[in-house]
């Protein structure tokens, strides 16, 4: 009876993890979300209140809420956890359409955006990993997966001059290092830590954009097309999660995957 914790399971990729993992009634899936009642309602309406789903509240910016969720989750899963999927993340809207030098014209706003991104995408994840570590160590599978972003690949940004999403990608690059540090400490005890990029996935971020915003993003997509000429557009959450689950199953400390930063394809091809 494998056990899973998925953060950010209210929508997007996290919801799809919840949906696919709970398809198997022998899996126990704990969803950690900010709005517990909204997610419970969605589970009731769309997944017929599957009994193997348990919804808990926590906010990555609130240590005590994470601590309470970890304690509650441990009671549900019998004190051990097989897979921790750290999916929740802050995808900043502030940094999405302008390069870092333009963002810097409003230094207070840039600083606030950098801090908010770091708080959620780095510090919150580190607290999450630490709080669940005793349960992961007691689990059978011992896999901790952080949702990374290929966009935070230094060589991609460097070679293709991808200048948008500075706060977001800086925080995701820092998350990769945090994952590597956890690997450095815990691989000896058999725990796999992995930074896993989902590819470019349509989770509704493009809805309702102005023409100017579309133009800005269009420029970035053109650069991605140069990077991956066969790119046909974003994948669905369903495809991405299916691919990621296959990578998660195949990855192991023994094979040298610990602390790595890889894509849903299991390599470093990001889209
Ligand atoms: N979509 C892509 O193309 C793509 C590409 C690369 C990486 N990723 C990464 O994949 C993950 C999921 O992406 P997505 O597209 O599904 O994002 P999304 O649709 O924006 O969903 C983000 C999720 O994170 C939760 N969340 C945000 N801040 C939180 C906080 N402080 N505490 C707890 N939960 C919080 C949100 O909860 P609420 O519902 O309460 O807001 C939501 O469930 C993210 O880590 C993202 O960086 C996505």
From TrEMBL:
Gene3D superfamilies: NAD(P)-binding Rossmann-like Domain. InterPro entries: NAD(P)-bd_dom_sf, SDR_enzymes, SDR_fam. Pfam families: adh_short. This is NAD(P)-binding protein. It comes from Aspergillus cavernicola. The lineage of its organism: Eukaryota, Fungi, Dikarya, Ascomycota, Pezizomycotina.
């Amino acid at each position: 009876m494998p056990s899973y914790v998925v953060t950010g399971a209210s929508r997007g990729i996290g919801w799809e993890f919840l949906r696919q993992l709970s398809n198997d009634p022998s899996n126990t899936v704990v969803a950690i979300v900010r709005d517990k009642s909204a997610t419970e309602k969605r589970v009731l309406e769309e997944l017929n209140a599957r009994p193997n789903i348990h919804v808990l509240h926590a906010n990555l910016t609130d240590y005590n809420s994470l601590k309470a969720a970890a304690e509650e989750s441990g009671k549900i899963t019998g004190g051990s956890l097989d897979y921790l999927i750290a999916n929740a993340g802050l995808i900043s809207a502030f940094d999405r359409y302008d390069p870092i030098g333009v963002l810097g014209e409003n230094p207070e706003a840039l600083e606030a955006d950098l801090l908010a991104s770091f708080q959620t995408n780095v510090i919150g994840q580190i607290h999450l990993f630490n709080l669940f570590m005793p349960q992961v160590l007691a689990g059978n599978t011992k896999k901790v997966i952080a949702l990374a972003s290929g966009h935070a690949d230094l060589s991609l940004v460097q070679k293709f001059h991808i200048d948008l999403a500075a706060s977001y990608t800086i925080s995701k690059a820092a998350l990769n290092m945090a994952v590597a540090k956890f690997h450095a400490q815990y691989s000896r005890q058999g725990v796999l830590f992995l930074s896993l990029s989902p590819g470019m996935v349509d989770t509704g971020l493009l809805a309702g954009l102005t023409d100017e915003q579309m133009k800005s993003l269009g420029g970035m997509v053109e650069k991605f097309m140069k990077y991956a000429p066969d790119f046909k557009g974003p994948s669905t959450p369903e495809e991405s999660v299916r691919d990621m689950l296959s990578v998660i199953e195949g990855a192991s400390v023994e094979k040298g995957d610990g602390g790595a930063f890889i894509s849903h394809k299991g390599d470093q091809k990001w889209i």
